[in-house]
Fold this protein.
Amino acid sequence: MTKPVINICLAELLGKIDKKSIPIIKEFGVNWVELYFLGNVDKNNVTEVKKVLDANKIFVSALNLWTPSFWKKEEIENGNLGQHIKDGISVAKVLNTKFIIIYGVLKNKETEIDSIDNYIKRMEPIVKEAKKEGMIVVIENDYDINGIELTRNALTTRKIIEMFRNDNVFINFDPCNYLVAGEEPFPYGYDIIKKYIRYIHLKDATQYVLEKHGKVPVQKDFSGEYACVPLGEGAVNHYGLIKQLLKDGYDGFLSIEPHVKKEEVAAAIKKGLTFLSEII
């Protein structure tokens, strides 16, 4: 039976990757890591990062291109976002990674279909460039405080991928993001989009209560506020999801990204690894 590959996101754990990063990564016993473009690696240090990772047999599962520009109209219109993604593709090529993660399918004043169509038109040249380099573009389902992120529900997420009509555009499934957006992640959301899932982000969360959680990073959506917790300690049915993924033969990446307080990131990753090891 095929099994998923467990990896960890380094965005919250480390800054720029160098030789000093290796002992920290090895502490978790994984060979695959997800890097954050600009935070962990950029055009200036990518050659050295690749050299350091190769020397320690550590591989890059995906390059995450998250930036606030995905949600800023002026950054989209002036071409800054497009250039950011193109630069990311060039860095991903050096890293020899197969996946790049993108975001930001926003509903503006036009209809939902027109908003999706405009997004596709903006992204098509980038998607073609990624395909030329043998890469798969995965769009992450997300949420936002204004409720205009169209990937916030599973049916629309599926519609977006199907409208692309491209064989290298798929979904980075983040079950917890659906929870925050008010959508049932599993089984409902998963069942709708599973055909198009090629990468998975794993974090957990529960409804934010100040008296219980204190001052922590809060995931804010117009439907409510959530505090992230280690896998298995929140409201997402990760146990049921992982069991179903195994049954369905999913052999892609399960990428742990805690989204907890910085001083708790390492502990949350370790708890996540333990949680997954007891199921897989």
Notes: DSSP finds eleven helices and eleven strands in the chain. The chain has a mean pLDDT of 96. The two ends are 11 Å apart (CA to CA).
